[in-house]
Amino acid sequence: MNTLVLRVATRILLPLILVSSIFMLLRGHNQPGGGFVGGLIASIGFSLHVFVSGAEALRRMLRTDPRWIAAVGLGVAIISGLVGPYASGTPFLTSAWTSVGGVKVGTPLVFDVGVYLVVVGAMLTFILGIKEQG
Amino acid sequence: MELINAALVGVLMASSVYLMLSRNLVRFVLGLALLSHAANLLIFTGGGITSSITSRAADGATAESDSLAQALILTAIVISFSLFTFALVLAFRTYETLETVDTDAMRAAEPEPSGHPGRTDPSGRPS
Amino acid sequence: MEKASARVPLYSRLVVALPAGLFVWFASMVPSVAGGEAQFASIGWLPQLGVDLAFHVDGLGLLFALLITGVGTFILLYASEYMRGHPQVGRFTAFLVAFMLSMLGVVLSDNLIVLFVFWELTTLTSFLLIGYSHGDSAARRAALQSLIVTGAGALAMLAGFVLLGNAAGSYSLREMLAGDSDLAGHPAYVAMLVLVLAGAFTKSAQFPFHFWLPNAMAAPTPVSAYLHSATMVKAGVFLLARLNPVLGGTDEWGMTLTGFGAFTAVYSAAVALTRTDLKQILAYTTLMALGVCVMFIGLPQSRGADEVPLGAVAAVAFVFVHALYKAPLFMVAGTIDHSAGTRDIRSLGGLRKAMPWSLLAAALAALSMSGVPPFAGFVGKEILYSSAIGSTYGVAATAAIVTANAMIVSAALLVVAVPFLGQSPATRPTPHEGRWPMWIGSLVLGVAALGAGLFPRLAFEWLLLPAAGAVAGRQPHFEASLWHGFNLPFALSVVTLSAGALAYWQRNRLTGALGSALARLPVTGDSAYDWLMNGIARVSVVHTRIVQCGIQRRYLLIVFATLGASVLTTLVVKGVIAWPARIPDVSFVEWLLAILIAASALVTIRSHSRLMAIVALGVVGTGIALIFLLHGASDVAMTQLMVETLVVVIVAMVLLKLPGFRREVRQTGLGRWRDAIVSCVVGLTTTLVLLAVTAEPSHRRLTEYFQKTAVPEGFGANVVNVILVDFRGLDTLGEISVLALAAVSAYTLINWRPRRSARAAARSKAFPEAEGAAKPETLS
């Protein structure tokens, strides 16, 4: 699979895929998309990288174990759920919204970022685990 | 529309059960994948889809299927994927450890009662 | 285990502040509780079921709370020194503290269900504490035994609680005690009684469930001193005392409690004399004390009902007295074990010079235990005697308690006189006194026993009478004093002391006779327990051989066949098989998709090539994604497509490393037909269920709610996403947790290579017995 064409194509494609995954994540609240889809798109991009340059290259690029990404995502999701209870005494995971320069910003967005990170972390954990040991 | 989806769910379900009843661990894992497809389609159809869908759907979604069911399925897809991957890894490690994919030969946890010689031969073992 | 040079971790000393602080807090409640004001606090837990986290401090609860925290303070201090140098002090301390808090929960709960939960928590923490030296098979067995015996009793007790709660109309103890529902006349009264007593008797180790307590001496000594003297085993006594106003007062109650209690007291006092291990002697005297408490809670008084409820006063006073002398004696036994290296009284003697402080503490405790004036034990014994004399079973009860007490005097001499006095055996390392935390607690408790004896009025007014009032259900008018004059109880005290001294003097002859009598018992609790456990194991072997064939696909076949058959039968019987009234016009695209998916599923089944099967599986997934898309579910469709891509990637990576299908052991023709039939039935059933579901008008209440509120409340137009991240955020949180967990598990699984590595060797070196007992199945 390690052909020159694929390698060059990946070098161009990977940033594009990652950007589009974040685009998917951010637009998810109003249009099709969201953390799950975004995370999956990013994972596909990364797995392309694994196939072309190997698991070691991806680890170098990430600079951290993907399990950490999943853990951080989980933490972000939980913390986003604590904002509501902390700010206004509502139950855990109740959304809290505020307006920043006319744009509505709320904890569900942060939660979705957490989902994104968990999905990316988990998928990369699967792929790297299988690739390295299989 | 429900009819055709229901029939399709039935076919997928039957295929998956048939595969899972196999002695081959690999076929079992494939059956597991089909099972989650069948389940997702089942929830989707059961949640209520508006009928009279035609090719118009291609230019902009005109039909609204149940958004709650959609949310359920969306998470179900990701969950079943992780279950499937785990099962796959488990199957792989089982093969590495026991050197067979024949589930009848996997008797480490529940060994044959003594006095009854193994009924199965380890033919799943690659020679 | 002990390394004198090792440092005591700071936290194990600091943690002493917790029980000490709680003790002070509870002590501050004494005046108001003694004045008749009970404290109450409640937090809603399961209000729908009438279960609230309600706590209630009355006289009885407060007495126990003070004992638990007061003794707990000294035990934790003692343990910090006793466990010096042990590698897992932290765990030990944590268990002890957890135990203490659960025990507090038991004595302060107002709700029966909450009480049960705390009760079980004490069972679990004591399991961990008894089995603390898990390398020792005796400790493991003792831990499991106590767990099974007290756990089984507790389950019976829970059933009793449910009956009780239903009969009384409330699970709240306060309401139960305040209400005057006539439970004694309830048709289920005997069932309640038996079930609740099963819990209390197993926990408080009454005969015939007594055997686990002596075995539990395998625990480290601080545990024995805490759990098996002052606190945990008293939980059963506490429960009986607590429920006495509700369940008591009947003939059944009086006879059962008095009978079991008296027998346990006399029997275990006799066994205590035949033991030579200090802790075993103390364990059996503890059994005796528990028997006495149970007996006096139940003992019916023959004098008029408006008389003083002497039985309740006697039981409560004895609980208090016992805690003050038994914990010090256990702690001293542990100190002796530490410094002299043995607990066997046959090889102990002459420690008085080496261990003066321990001697002092032990002597104070033993004098109180023997009931020598002016110790609290004397006061307690006088009340026991006058209560027994005034009871319905006058002579029999008095004879039993005097006999038991005489033997206890003997046992007290045995545990103190033998090790400390006399000549020291020559062949022994020089014993030394323990550091101050090892004896300070025993000394303080011993002095407290003396103080309570000298000023009985103080102890009774503030602590014991409010507690006895809670047990009896009415406030007793009782004048406590050290000296009652030359009366029958005093004469009996003199008899007890002289008989005990005589028995000690003639102990060789006596123990010989007792030992041979006990050896002739046909069955002991321990052997009955073993017989039961082996029986269960044998039954399960037979049962497993019948039910579990060990072949995975046969299990699955049973599961699927049952599923298909039962659901299909239900559909037919209920007559809900629906067929669409009209065949809707299905578009060409849909037909095409359906056929494509069905065909691919069949290819997955039939294919002999793994690659082909993978591709077919991918087509199925993609086709389903297209179906989602056709119905406007674009989020789901996208997700499905992405996942499908990843599935194919991962499957291709793994599956190609596994052997191909051709090698598969093919089913015989008959087996294949059987599988095919079962699969078709399951498939057909699914189809029919789905048709039946869709024939009904769908309930879109939730969906409509979500669609209506998504924009105004969730600020998002994509309803699916708003549901995921906002309305049903907790579900999604659970789901991503599973995802992360599955990933980590798969990663661990694939990287885990079992090997008899250096680590495993180190482990087997550290716990040789654990390794030998539970050798892991080696997979070859």
Architecture overview:
The complex is a heterotrimer of chains A (134), B (127) and C (780). Chain A is mainly alpha-helical. Chain A has one domain (4-133). Chain A is built from five helices and two strands; from the N terminus they run ααααββα. The longest helix of chain A is centred in the C-terminal third of the chain and has 27 residues, at 107-133. Chain A starts with a helix and ends with a helix. Chain B is an all-alpha fold. Chain B has one domain (2-54, 63-98). Chain B is elongated. The model of chain B is unreliable at 51-63 and 115-127 (pLDDT under 50). Chain C is built from 32 helices and two strands. Chain C has a two-stranded antiparallel sheet. The radius of gyration of chain C is 34 Å and the shape is elongated. The interface between B and C is large, with 97 and 100 residues.
Structural class of chain C: mainly alpha
Oligomer: heterotrimer
Write down the overall mean pLDDT of chain C: 83
Q: Major sheet of chain C, described briefly?
A: 2 strands, antiparallel
Helical/strand content category of chain B: mainly alpha
Count, helices of chain C: 32
Number of helices of chain B: 3
**How many strands, what sense, and barrel or not for the largest sheet of chain B?**
none
Biggest chain pair contact, residues each?
Answer: B-C, 97 and 100 residues
Q: What is the strand arrangement across the widest sheet of chain C?
A: 1-2
Shape, principal axes of CA atoms of chain B: elongated
N-to-C SSE string of chain B, H for helix and E for strand: HHH
- Beta-strand content of chain C: under 5%
Helix proportion of chain B: 55-70%
The number of strands of chain B is 0
Radius of gyration of chain C: 34 Å
Low-confidence stretches of chain B: 51-63, 115-127
Low-confidence stretches of chain C: 765-780
How many structural units, i.e. domains of chain B? 1
How many beta-strand segments of chain C? 2
